[in-house]
Amino acid sequence: MMSADKNCAEYFNAGVMQWNIHGACDMLGKYNLKAQADVILQSNPDVVVLNEVDNNCERSGKVDMTKVLGSLTGMVFTQ
After folding, report:
1. DSSP per residue over 55-73, as a string?
2. Relative to the CA of 62, which of 33, 45, 53, 54 has its CA 20 to 30 Å away?
3. What is the DSSP string of 9-55?
4. What 3-state class would DSSP assign to 8?
5. What's the rounded Cα separation, in Å, for the pair 50 and 21?
6. Model confidence over 33-54: pLDDT tens digits?
């Protein structure tokens, strides 16, 4: 429990990254999960929220992108 004289931000300060990875295409339009993971790591967020993440889709070779990005970044993931 938090005391009334403490600022909530002192207890809940977290860096959040929200990003649409567009099916893991890089700036050249090529599928590149490693480049996506590198951007996440460089940003050093506590929490990442991603959009357009494929799972078992033809366009990305039926890869579970969430699992691969979790592995490449060392972050815990959920779908």
Report:
1. BS-GGGTT-BHHHHHHHHH
2. 45
3. HHH----EEEEE-GGGB-TTS-B-HHHHHHHHHHH--SEEEEES--B
4. helix
5. 7
6. 999 999 999 999 999 999 988 8
Cα–Cα distance measured from residue 58 to residue 71, given in angstroms and rounded to the nearest whole number: 21
Query: Residue 66: which of 28, 30, 25, 24 has the closest Cα?
Result: 24
pLDDT at 31: 87
What does pTM read for this prediction?
A: 0.77
Name the amino acid, one letter, at 79.
Q
- Which residues, other chains included, contact 55 with Cβ-Cβ below 8 Å and sequence gap of 6+? 63, 64, 65, 66, 79
In contact, 33 and 25? CB cutoff 8 Å = no
Q: Which amino acid is at 7?
A: N
The rounded distance, in Å, linking the Cα atoms of 45 and 35 is 16
